Amino acid sequence: MKHGQISSKELSEFIRERATIEEAYSRSMTKLAKTASNCSQLGTFAPMWDVFKQSTEKLAACHMELVRKLQELIKEVQKYVEEQAKNHKKTKEEVASTLEAVQNIQSVSQALQKSKENYISKTLEQERMRKEGATQKDLDKAGLKVKKATETYKSYVEKYATAKTEFEQRMTETSQKFQGIEEEHVLRMQEIIHSYCQSVEETHIQIGEGQEEFVKNMENTSVESLIQKLAESKGTGKERPGNTAKSLTHSAKPRKRKTFAIPGRRRDKDTDSTQVLTFTLTISLNSFYSSSDSEDEDEPRKFHVQIKPVQTNNGTHQHKATIDELKASIGNISLSPTPAVRDASHQHAVTNYSLCFTTFILFYLSSNSRLSNNDLLSLDPFGPTSTGSSSSLPHSSVPPPNRPTTPLGTATIIPPPRPLSRPKLPAGKLTGINEAGRPFSPSKMSNSSPPPAAPLARAESSSSLSSNTSLSTSNTPTVGTSRGPSPVTLASLDALPIAVAFTESVNAYFKGADPSKCIVKITGDMTLSFPSGIIKIFTSSPSPAVLSFKLSNTSRLEQIMPNQQLLHSDSSQSDTNTKDFWLNMPALTAYLRKSSEQNPAASYYNVDILKYQVCSNGIQSTPLNLVVYWKCTSSTTDLRVDYRYNPEAMQPPAALTNVQVLVPVSGDVTNMQSIPNAIWNAEQSKSLWKLSDISDKSENEGSGSLRAKFELSDGPSIPATLAVQFFSEGSTLSGVDVELVGSGYRLSLNKKRFATGRYMADC
């Protein structure tokens, strides 16, 4: 057993070291992704760095997700180490009688051996004296010694037989106990290793999918697409600018320089107070002329330009050139070809001149604050500003589809009307205890609220059914979002991952110690979680694969209320223990599309599929049995609460966590003594016990008592109803389960949990 504890601790350290390595690797990949984002964004290769960056970030996310899973696994191992130490201590006390049996048989064996040797010695001595002819008196003395040795030897033989029987019995029982402990130890270690392997395997699958996506993105990035992206990002437009009536002409002869002005504006003749910007354009046009041109035309053509800005009135800095006037001025700039032009391509060079003038004018006007930044950004020099329009498509109204003959049927399914709001389950009440909708939200903790539930620890989930989804039994569905973006992009040819969660609420009322007076009602709901990437696959396919599933152990359900807008079932099924369902895919697609429009940043979307009520068997269906005893006098009140863990109520048995017991006590309590320690709230006149996890591995197999003595100043107290709260992960009270039918989908996570609704007890 000691070696078992050592191996458990060593395994925990090994997993912790692996998590440290994965975290360091993830951080290094994150730094590498930042390096890719800092690479040059110029040239045709620039878009490829985005692909590198996204792929590296996804790889880092995969490894960080593995770190999170390993850390959760380390917590499980540490919890097992603590349980193992308690079990070993308990076992040591139980086998104390075996130690006594071992020590007893060892002492008896030694005494038996000595008595045997004494008996043989005395017998040989008597025989020797007879042969030597000793006197009768000496022979009689020797005979007495032999007789005494014989009796002693006989008694020790009997004692040894008794000690041996007890030793064999004790050792058999103890050996079986030790073997059971070792078998359980090896089994738990195997479960831990299996979880470890599964986490690593899921990470490798994610990495492989990410690499496959990277390869596809690289293969789909063609030379033409890179050139096109560069042209779109650097180009000045898709249409050629046209010529206007006015033009600037060039000639080999000297010309009088003309200043540039905006039409319709008065020129200021005071050139002394006017800043004139002068520059020269020098461009070689040799390739555009024939060999018969003169030598003068072989020289680079120079154009001397002066731009005289419009003056402000009264020293104010108002904008003097409007957008329309600037566009008109720029439109008037053009270059006309000379008679010497023999090639039509020369017109392209002339257009380039116009572009040069346009660019320079925009720069100059912006530098002199003639236009605001917004005006410059919205300016289109070569055409009117166009505005886009939006249009909406009408919705069709058709009945929902019939059940498909196969989950992957290719028949066209006509979509039903798109829901205007989130689909809601029928408003019909489940029979039983009148239960007010009370959110059991981990995000709003109080003294009577449970701690946040652990997030889903899986690649596509673990996390898809978020902690924002409350444990309430409200009939209004809720949209849940994921804890973060998925590191894997879905491919249409893969089996699409679906996560499912069963959440149940147990309501119970215990009256005294009579089990027949216990009233129990258990309700639950089933939620499906879809990754955001699945919406694109659904919308791109004219007939997506129909999602079908089978519920098992439905004979334990008293009532099932499916979501009528999304879910269909066959009422003619003969098997009472299973029930088949399939989803209305057009309605599901429309709902998921609407959810993504409302919350585009979410990575997962939760859909309430059905609610159900569980058949209860009285107190046997409650995971924690309660009995309350009150003894009230004018000066004191004695309270005792007995509880017992009931593993048979759960499928499978699981620990009850965050157990809290709240008891109101009247009579003006002045002092409280309790075992175990409780918290007294004087303002509310309530005592609160907070207990550790309760399971069959707890002390007394989960049974115990809460005791308190209250001293009163205004007694006696009136016995009140106490309330209990707890929850459990990994189990349900109904035992209902789900199995996907057909291909096209895979169940990535099946999460089960239950919590208390109104859990009360009276004396």
From TrEMBL:
<keyword id="KW-0472">Membrane</keyword>
<dbReference type="InterPro" id="IPR031160">
    <property type="entry name" value="F_BAR_dom"/>
</dbReference>
<keyword id="KW-0254">Endocytosis</keyword>
<dbReference type="InterPro" id="IPR001060">
    <property type="entry name" value="FCH_dom"/>
</dbReference>
<feature type="domain" description="MHD">
    <location>
        <begin position="495"/>
        <end position="763"/>
    </location>
</feature>
<dbReference type="GO" id="GO:0048268">
    <property type="term" value="P:clathrin coat assembly"/>
</dbReference>
<dbReference type="Pfam" id="PF22699">
    <property type="entry name" value="GMIP-like_FCH"/>
</dbReference>
<feature type="compositionally biased region" description="Low complexity">
    <location>
        <begin position="455"/>
        <end position="478"/>
    </location>
</feature>
<comment type="similarity">
    <text>Belongs to the FCHO family.</text>
</comment>
<dbReference type="GO" id="GO:0072583">
    <property type="term" value="P:clathrin-dependent endocytosis"/>
</dbReference>
<dbReference type="GO" id="GO:0005886">
    <property type="term" value="C:plasma membrane"/>
</dbReference>
<feature type="compositionally biased region" description="Low complexity">
    <location>
        <begin position="384"/>
        <end position="396"/>
    </location>
</feature>
<keyword id="KW-0175">Coiled coil</keyword>
<dbReference type="InterPro" id="IPR054713">
    <property type="entry name" value="GMIP/FCHO2-like_FCH"/>
</dbReference>
<feature type="domain" description="F-BAR">
    <location>
        <begin position="1"/>
        <end position="226"/>
    </location>
</feature>
<dbReference type="InterPro" id="IPR028565">
    <property type="entry name" value="MHD"/>
</dbReference>
<dbReference type="GO" id="GO:0030136">
    <property type="term" value="C:clathrin-coated vesicle"/>
</dbReference>
<feature type="region of interest" description="Disordered">
    <location>
        <begin position="232"/>
        <end position="273"/>
    </location>
</feature>
<dbReference type="Pfam" id="PF10291">
    <property type="entry name" value="muHD"/>
</dbReference>
<dbReference type="InterPro" id="IPR018808">
    <property type="entry name" value="Muniscin_C"/>
</dbReference>
<dbReference type="GO" id="GO:0098793">
    <property type="term" value="C:presynapse"/>
</dbReference>
<keyword id="KW-0597">Phosphoprotein</keyword>
<dbReference type="InterPro" id="IPR027267">
    <property type="entry name" value="AH/BAR_dom_sf"/>
</dbReference>
<feature type="compositionally biased region" description="Basic and acidic residues">
    <location>
        <begin position="232"/>
        <end position="241"/>
    </location>
</feature>
<feature type="coiled-coil region">
    <location>
        <begin position="63"/>
        <end position="94"/>
    </location>
</feature>
<dbReference type="GO" id="GO:0048488">
    <property type="term" value="P:synaptic vesicle endocytosis"/>
</dbReference>
<feature type="region of interest" description="Disordered">
    <location>
        <begin position="384"/>
        <end position="485"/>
    </location>
</feature>
<keyword id="KW-0168">Coated pit</keyword>
<dbReference type="GO" id="GO:0005905">
    <property type="term" value="C:clathrin-coated pit"/>
</dbReference>
<protein>
    <submittedName>
        <fullName>FCH and mu domain containing endocytic adaptor 2</fullName>
    </submittedName>
</protein>
<dbReference type="InterPro" id="IPR036168">
    <property type="entry name" value="AP2_Mu_C_sf"/>
</dbReference>
